[in-house]
């Protein structure tokens, strides 16, 4: 029981162990010792030892890729110099409390009861018995052999199985034979028990449903990554039967084609050996085989035609559902919109736009000096006319003087003239020439 992966437990490779595994005997002696009864005695040491083994147990499960383990398998895997860790039981109980591990029996009991219809006896009856005995308080399972599941690893591998199916030719129809699916997932599932556990996880996530039909187990997958699988119905079973019929007919045609070719070769050999009757019998057998092949071809074409129509109807149904959802969304979005309200809204928008244009024109037509745009244009026209008139008529300027100005009179000449007037008149000067202020001052002083 305790070798859940099917192979005997092996010690962990040296590369997966911490550096102190082979170098620090004192440290490893502490780690291999049992946990204290209470964490409160020394919480620091308790937490340190727990963190060491929790990380090592989870890393071992991920490295091996096995979703199942047990206490005895881990003890054998972590054996060091003939000693096994004494506190692994406490570590596993802590991982169960954290939800990192789960008992296999509890996991299967949490899935819908439909798993009973397709499970195998070894896989179902013992865990069911263990679960019932645990509920009744009479558990006979040794702690060392109780199978535990790595929860996160199981979910990841189940997702990988789903992706393998989606990327394969089997995904052309949601229903597939369990045997074909198991062959497809052989690289992910090392054994049949792990394969069933992964299917149970997918069934728990509502991504597959499993049904046994005429002694054969068939699996139906959900369409889409986030869709939920619908229950198996008569259409699914009918399509699956048609697909099986197509496969059987194709195999039969291939077999008969090889048989017809063999009859042809036998007839040729008999003819070379001079056995004419034998050659004729071989040719007759070849013709009968070819007629059977033609009949099977016609049946195969009919089956394929029905499948094509079914696939087309499924596509039409999908498109119809999409259209229906679109119509519902469009109705909801146009709930409060009517033609009258739309026309009223457009009229209001046009009215506001016209008002805005008028305001903009009014603001743009006002200058700083208060003149309107029309007044400015009139002033510019008047200025242009004045400029044109000024270029046509010459300007009336005074004539240029022709008389040559005499040179200015000097002060000496003025004084000489003044003396002459004084001598001739014998008194006050009768006439004083226009001169500067200096001669007038001199005249005043002489008087």
Task: Describe the secondary structure blueprint for this structure.
Elements: H1 20-23, H2 25-32, H3 43-64, E1 68-69, H4 71-77, H5 88-98, E2 101-103, H6 104-109, H7 121-135, E3 148-150, H8 151-166, E4 175-177, H9 178-184, H10 192-204, E5 208-213, E6 216-221, H11 234-272, H12 276-333, H13 339-364, H14 373-392, H15 411-425, H16 437-446
Antiparallel strand pairs: 1-3, 2-3, 4-6, 5-6
Helix pairs in contact: 8-10, 11-12
Largest beta-sheet details: 3 strands, antiparallel
The ordered H/E elements are HHHEHHEHHEHEHHEEHHHHHH
Q: In what range is the share of β-strand residues?
A: 5-15%
Q: Which strand order does the major sheet show?
A: 1-3-2
For the record, give the distance between the C-alpha atoms at the N and C termini, rounded to a whole number: 163 Å
The average pLDDT is 76
- What is the oligomeric state here? single chain
* Number of DSSP-assigned strands: 6
Q: Into which percent range does the helicity of residues fall?
A: 55-70%
Low-confidence regions: 115-141, 427-447
Tally of contiguous helical segments: 16
Domain CHMP7 winged helix: 154-222
Keywords: Coiled coil, Cytoplasm, Nucleus, Protein transport, Transport
Coiled coil: 246-306
Pfam families: Snf7, WHD_CHMP7, WHD_CHMP7_1st
Key structural traits:
447 residues; mainly alpha; Arc Repressor Mutant, subunit A; three-stranded antiparallel sheet; 16 helices; 6 strands
What does this structure look like?
Residues 246-306 form a coiled coil. Belongs to the SNF7 family. Residues 1-12 have a biased composition (Pro residues). Among the domains are: 19-98, no CATH class; 149-221, DNA replication factor Cdt1, C-terminal WH domain (Arc Repressor Mutant, subunit A, Orthogonal Bundle), CATH 1.10.10.1420; 234-363 and 377-387, no CATH class. The model is unreliable at 115-141 and 427-447 (pLDDT under 50). It is extended. The chain has 16 helices and six strands. The chain is mostly helical. It has a three-stranded antiparallel β-sheet. 62% of the residues lie in helices and 5% in strands.
């Amino acid at each position: 029981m305790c070798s859940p992966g099917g192979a005997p437990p092996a010690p962990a490779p040296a590369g997966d162990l911490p550096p102190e595994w082979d170098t620090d005997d004192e440290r490893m002696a502490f780690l291999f010792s049992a946990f204290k009864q209470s964490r409160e005695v020394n919480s620091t040491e308790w937490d340190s030892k727990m963190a060491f083994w929790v990380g090592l147990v989870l890393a071992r499960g991920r490295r091996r890729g096995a979703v199942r383990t047990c206490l005895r398998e881990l003890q054998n895997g972590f054996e060091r110099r003939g000693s096994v860790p004494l506190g692994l039981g406490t570590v596993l109980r802590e991982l169960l409390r954290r939800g990192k591990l789960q008992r296999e029996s509890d996991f299967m009991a949490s899935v819908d009861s439909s798993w009973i219809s397709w499970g195998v006896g070894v896989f179902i009856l013992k865990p069911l018995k263990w679960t019932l005995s645990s509920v009744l308080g009479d558990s006979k399972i040794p702690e060392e052999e109780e199978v535990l599941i790595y929860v996160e690893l199981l979910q990841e591998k189940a997702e990988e199985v789903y992706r393998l199916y989606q990327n394969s030719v089997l995904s052309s129809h949601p229903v597939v034979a369990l045997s074909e699916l198991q062959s497809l997932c052989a690289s992910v599932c090392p054994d049949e028990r792990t394969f069933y556990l992964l299917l149970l996880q997918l069934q728990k996530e509502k991504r597959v449903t499993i049904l046994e039909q005429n002694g054969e187990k068939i699996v139906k997958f959900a369409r889409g990554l986030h869709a939920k699988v619908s229950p198996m119905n008569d259409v699914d079973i009918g399509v699956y039967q048609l697909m099986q019929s197509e496969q059987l007919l194709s195999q039969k045609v291939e077999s008969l084609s090889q048989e017809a070719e063999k009859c042809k070769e036998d007839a040729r050999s008999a003819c070379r050996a001079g056995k004419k009757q034998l050659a004729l019998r071989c040719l007759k057998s070849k013709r009968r085989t070819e007629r059977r092949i033609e009949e099977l071809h016609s049946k195969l074409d009919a089956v394929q035609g029905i499948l094509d129509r079914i696939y087309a109807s499924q596509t039409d149904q999908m498109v119809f559902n999409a259209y229906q959802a679109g119509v519902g969304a469009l109705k909801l979005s146009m709930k409060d919109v009517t033609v009258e309200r739309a026309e009223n809204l457009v009229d209001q928008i046009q009215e506001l736009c016209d008002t805005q244009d008028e305001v903009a024109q009014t603001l743009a037509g006002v200058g700083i000096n208060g003149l309107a745009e029309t007044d400015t244009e009139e002033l510019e026209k008047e200025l242009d006319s004045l400029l044109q008139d000024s270029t046509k008529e010459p300007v009336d300027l005074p004539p240029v003087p022709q008389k040559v100005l005499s040179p200015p009179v000097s002060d000496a000449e003025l004084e000489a003239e003044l003396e002459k007037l004084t001598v001739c008149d014998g008194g006050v000067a009768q006439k004083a020439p226009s001169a500067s202020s200096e001669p007038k001052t001199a005249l005043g002083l002489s008087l």
